[in-house]
Protein 1
Amino acid sequence: MKRFSWFNATSLTLGFAFLYVPMIILVIYSFNASKLVTVWAGFSTQWYGELIRNEEFLNAAWVTIKVAVMSSTIATVLGTMAAYVLVRAGRFSGRTLFSGMIYAPLVMPEVITGLSLLLLFIGIGLDRGVLTIVLAHTTFSMCYVSVVVSSRLVSFDKSLEEAALDLGCSPFEAFRLVTLPIIAPAVISGWLLAFTLSLDDLVIASFTTGPSATTLPIKIFSAVRLGVSPEINALSTIMIAIVTVGVITASLITKQAAVRQARDERMAERPA
Amino acid sequence: MSQTVFAPWENPTEKPLIQFKNVTKRFGDFTAIDDLTQDIFAREFFALLGPSGCGKTTMMRMLAGFEAPTQGQIFIAGQDMAKIPPNKRAVNMMFQSYALFPHLSVWENIAFGLKREGKDKDTIAARVEEMLRLTRLSKFAKRKPHQISGGQRQRVALARSLAKAPKLLLLDEPLGALDKKLRQDTQFELMDIQEKTGTTFVIVTHDQEEAMTVASRVAVMDEGQIIQVATPAQIYEAPNSVYVADFIGDVNIISGRAKPNGEKVATQWAEGQPDIIGTTATKFDAGQEIHFAIRPEKVAISTEEPQDAANRVRGRVLDIAYLGNISTYHVELPTGHVIKAQTANTRRLSRRQITWEDPVWLSWTDTAGVLLER
């Protein structure tokens, strides 16, 4: 057991304060009764009430969720496929190039991703709206799914798939009946990650959106330019809550399920 | 009532179930199987025995369809398997890791292959029950693989691979993980199941005792080639090479020069020592290099000089290994050779007549050993 040290306690407090004080202030002020954001005038939930009556915000929220569900679902399918091929296909020429190319968007500046997508959509004459945002979000979130799923597949006992083939499965059936159920937790947490990423993306969405589709982050950003309102604070608080729940769930599913399944699998094998 | 001996390999009209025809398998530069030709017959319990890396697992994986031969052909029941994927073969495999599906119960694991065949529910249920009974797992049907013991898992793996009543069952080191007692029980269980179901079994193992116990024929492999295929008794008593003699059981090898004399061959092996007289059917040229191999249990040890033995040598006891049922004496000859002699301890609590450093006589008959060219 480590001894308590003032130095450790202080650095921990400072670190967390640095990360979370701005958000906590935002959450607190979302319950402020006053219309002035910086003046505390007592506890109230009126801004949440007004938020619900605000058509524009509700529309934006609806668009955001639609985009997030669609893009994360497509990204999960594509990302899982990519991960499967990269882990399973063994060594084919250009394998390193392929895996590098799948992970590159992780470090690519969003502005560049957004701009390149915008140019593509203009080039092929695609009207910008919900569809283009979905495509754009799929593009950048599928690499996250791919990373999560492939890290699970690396530890997957290949003889399970061979056993499925041996018992009469086609390769696709083997994937559907054996591989997928076993890697499901990783796939789900990949989906949640993609969902959360899509939910709070501003940069790429604003490049690829059109007049018909305004997502919440875009809406908030444009509203804030006219001055911060308590309503925005309330909205942001809700988004923080959703994202927090999403990320925590994703990591819990990955961790717990991975631990449990690793144990199950180890146990299902012969004892060492 | 006399029983006919099961030996289809001696019947030239018998059609083999499996035929390897000049099969070569390379992984990059590495040759795992080198121009191998071998027949395996229906209802055989065929053991592939060899050290790791000898190609035995590759042979099995080619039968299952997970690997394709680089050259040559494999026939199962007369059909060329080159284009047949694993899921279209009437071959099932019991995996070394068992490869039980962790997300399915014991029942579902066994039913897995039957469901793929599209059988109706009642047929599947009946067959699964039958398999559970056969492997004595009925009580554990609802459990998941991680909720049962190692021995039970191994039986689930066996039941799952037998459920589809394959023509051919492949077993990849099936008993390696079990402790010795359980392993021996399971070996007899396997033989029993093999007899009951009439399935052809091909087993891969590096455990010679296991191969000898279960198999109708044993193929001893080395570096991608089969060195000898024969019944366990033939492999043990009449190995065709020093490699096989040495790999199976314990053996004394004495190398020398041949001196043929009719049916008998004398081996000149050391200056000032009498030649070793052996009997052989093979022809040896005079002066040819020859290896005399004799099992320790065929060497008698005594304190007095034996009068009527065809071969006898003097030595000094170097070491004694007491194994309960038998004792092995390591005897050093004046030439520096160390010969192992084994005696059965048939009498309880008898005082050992021979002990360390004692001068002793070793003797054996002229038919006790085999003469090998290589």
Protein 2
Amino acid sequence: MLSGLLGRKVGMTQIFGARGEIIPVTVIEAGPCTVTQVKTLPTDGYEAVQLGFGEAKLKNTTRPILGHLGHSLPQTPNQRRRQQIEQAKARQAARKKASAAAEKAADKSAKATETEADEAESTETTTTAKAGAKASAKRRRGAGQALGPFRVLREVKVLGGEFPGVGDTVDLAMFSVGERIDIIGTSKGRGFAGVMKRHGFRGGQRTHGQSDRLRAPGSIGPGTTPGRVLKGTRMAGRMGNDRVTIKELEIVQADPERNLLLVKGSVPGANGGLLMIRKGAQQLALAARSGATDAPKQRA
Amino acid sequence: MSLAPLVRAVEEAQLRDDRPELESGDTVRVHLKVVEGTRERIQVFEGIVIRLRGDHLRRAFTVRRIAHNVGVERSFLLHSPQIDKIEVVRHNVVRRKNLYYMRGLTGKAARLKERRD
């Protein structure tokens, strides 16, 4: 089983709970994701699975990524030009050989000439075809499955159990209603924000003859001793656009048909933003601890 | 695809089609489900709709009544499962969306004329 899934934030609303109470929920489109790569201990040094999520246009995807996803790539203009030059050279060589052979065989009968020329041509074509096949085989990696292309590729851990293979799809069936999950997203960027917004400072006095001090930070430290501003002093600066993890959010509802998860509470980022939906870390830790206590018992 | 339809679809599942069209100034009887211990009973709150706000699943209204000489206002979500039934007793003539002016009126002045249409 995988530890997480990729999704995107759809928006917030409220729904009625079992007792008629109002529950604020965030609607998340979770998956379906496709396994694009499996990382194993012997080859990569760790175990993980790379997931692809969201549709992307072929023209907006780079060739290295297409190759990684097992697409057979169209030739670049450069490759095509080189191939054309090669082919032209091959044709010329064949023609030269044929004409030379024809001159040589001028004394001999006409029948013999024809067969020789044919032979020369056929050998040329087979060698070029072989070279082409070799190149395309090199380009086609993996099992030859053309996946995606996807908008995002991300890695998730594997929590034991069945190891998925490349090309498998995973959806929100891995989560159940009532389960606690962690959600990771990128918070909305606030730009260069002042100290009140960024750190919750109270600003200056509004009255008693103050001017221009409404949102000021106040003092940033003592004077001559130490004669510098301490590191880490909270000041104005870039705010938001950070990776934020919200832990232990409750799944209120799941709609496997539309791939929707309803999670109680808010989630970082703007609507449409990419989210990583992960099994709750605390619950995983608990499970791991109970697993650890189980293990010695089995040994004994 | 636009995201809004997905949120709307989620809300759609909880919309109730047995709710009447309410308008400001309507005299309504709201039948509430009240849970007392293990028993559930129906309590009726009758008054004038003085405010309507929100739309779709978030549609809400406020009912004002005079109980024991004290003005009481209660707000409800139109699609709340805690409401058993809403009866519109009569439509009244009002010229505003929010009837906050009713709060300053008592007795005869707080009457509304019934709409004839």
